[in-house]
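Write out this protein's structure.
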Amino acid sequence: MDRFGRLAWLWTAALAFSAGGASADTLRLKDGRLCDFAKIARAEGGFKIPFKNGDVFVPAAMVAEAVLLSPEGDYIPANDEEKAKVEKGLVPFDGKWIPKAQRDRLLKERAEKAKARMEDLKKHMEWRNRYMAQSAHFKFEYTIAPDIFDTYRDFLEAYFTIFAKKFKIGMPAKGDGRLKVCFYHDAEYYYQVSGAPRGAIGYFRFVEPIELNFFYDQGDVAETQDVLFHECNHYLVHLINPKFVYPHWLAEGMAEYYGASSWDPAKKELKSGLLQEGRIVVLMDAIAGNEWQKLEDLIRMQDFGGLHYAWAWSLVHMLMENPKTAPAFQGFFLNLALGKGVKRVDCGNGMQTVAPDEAISLFKAALKIKELSDLQSEWFDYVKKLEVKTGRGYALAGNWAMQVDLKHRAIRYFKTSLEKGEIKASTYDRLGRLLVDKEMIKEGIEAYRKAVELDPLCARTYMRLGNALARQKGEENEKEAERLMLLALELDPDDPYLKFEAPWKK
């Protein structure tokens, strides 16, 4: 049997081993994941999960709730006083000492109740059993945990209220007026049920049936919120005039402006118009390469890419954040869709828009400028002053560069993000992929190991780490590569994508 044939056999054996164990213990992570394993043991600082191919340690800081149905171990006394109590059959529990049998009974009762809650969450992760809820302006269908959903519901309501006041929108007259918003806990559910294009974690469907769809990205919750703000803005703008389609520079510029919002769940406060640091990094690179975006070309542009999103955001941000221009720009924005005398043209499916010449004419009139070049100079000066202060901005820029296949730039962005203190497993994992792809294997392995430390339950990172080690010479590396890939399959035997990462499938 050759090496790849042996790996294929081991892979099948790992699946059989994982499927055969009855699931008894569960960890609910703070990011929303539910992790079932046959045995989870408490360990100093967290939890240890034994597998055939090695133990996995999960820090307590990652865990929201642990349901351990297996018996607790004996308590180890810290001093002579505690030793005397233990010898009498007592153990510490909820701040007092009680008989061990009583503790075990209470723990079992708590575990059974918690397990019932976990099972209810799992049941609702099936789309046919999804949760449903309504708020003042939205109706929701979701498979994420209710406590996570509550935050999104609250800030969407606050978002609607703020935007409605500023842009004078109301509920649509059709039906009960509430927009359907669908949240999915899993990427595959999101793509299969919603029909969303691959690569986007959220999208607004502006033709019937109108709805918002989102995938809750557990690896980057902040990005999920940014995308939700962005896509929801498309819906709110749609309400201004459901038969009007805004030109790209305005639609995406405004969505990016509101995409940079923050929500304080404790104070129930929403702040909009913050800096899009990921976009600023992209603009800094463009400026360094003397790739300035002319304003008229941006207005006339039909084919929008990531760089154009950055330029459009910076223009809208400048106009919306300046008290002298904000009222005029907002008036122009509303006038395009609602104003009398505006020359609108058909753009298909019963929708209308404005041609670039009409948009330019109305834009100059609203802002009281003779030539676009006058505003362009002001815009360029504004962009030059924008600064990136956090590592997250570079991480977002790295995500963009990775998506558009600018690998060397993405590597630089991710490294800068980490240097600035944005330490995340997802960043190390993406950096590892890029480094290995560029044949920087040793450095890529180091990045993967960091990712595993930060998220020890991400099966795909173990598989990618194993793949990278398999490309190193030496029997020791080969054995460790096999162990890690098999451990990945034990961690998540139902993940259909792990087989595509396995070398025997290539």
